[in-house]
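ARCHIVE CARD
CATEGORY: sequence design from structure
SOURCE FIELD: tokenized fold
FIELD CONTENT:
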């Protein structure tokens, strides 16, 4: 079994992606995963605190029952990912792009989603209370049973939602 820190070290050393890995119940504090590409990686019940995922990309990844405390994901890219029952309250997703993703049971209260792009996503049973979502682009995305109480949508078109 390989741990996340070792997987990141190998990815940087070989200038390649973290691919086909499974991580269970890992706890990472201050981890630097910036500019790393993750492909078909599964994260189950992992805890990340003060971690940086700046400009990281995620392809067909699964995050299940994970926690992201004070984590940063600006300019990250997410394609065909499933985020299930994760907690990312206050996380920074500025200028991130989500394409074909499924988010279910997410807690993204107070999250910063400024200038984010949502394309062909399905968001269900989630909480975006007090989230900041200005100037976002939302295209062909379905929201069902999502709490946006107090969320800010300044200059974000909600047409067709």
């Amino acid at each position: 079994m390989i741990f996340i820190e070792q997987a990141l070290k190998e990815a940087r050393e070989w200038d390649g992606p973290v691919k086909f890995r499974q991580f269970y119940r890992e706890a990472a504090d201050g981890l630097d995963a910036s500019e790393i590409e993750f492909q078909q990686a599964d994260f189950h019940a992992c805890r990340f605190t003060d971690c940086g995922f700046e400009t990281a990309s995620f392809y067909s990844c699964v995050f299940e029952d994970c926690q992201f405390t004070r984590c940063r994901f600006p300019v990250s890219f997410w394609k065909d990912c499933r985020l299930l029952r994760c907690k990312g309250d206050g996380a920074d997703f500025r200028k991130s792009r989500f394409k074909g993703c499924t988010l279910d049971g997410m807690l993204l209260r107070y999250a910063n989603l400024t200038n984010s792009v949502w394309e062909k996503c399905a968001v269900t049973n989630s909480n975006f209370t007090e989230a900041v979502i200005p100037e976002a682009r939302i295209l062909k995305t379905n929201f069902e049973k999502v709490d946006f109480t107090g969320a800010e949508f300044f200059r974000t078109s909600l047409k067709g939602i």
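CARD ANNOTATION: Helices lie at 4-14. The first helix runs from residue 4 to 14.
SHELF: design records, drawer C
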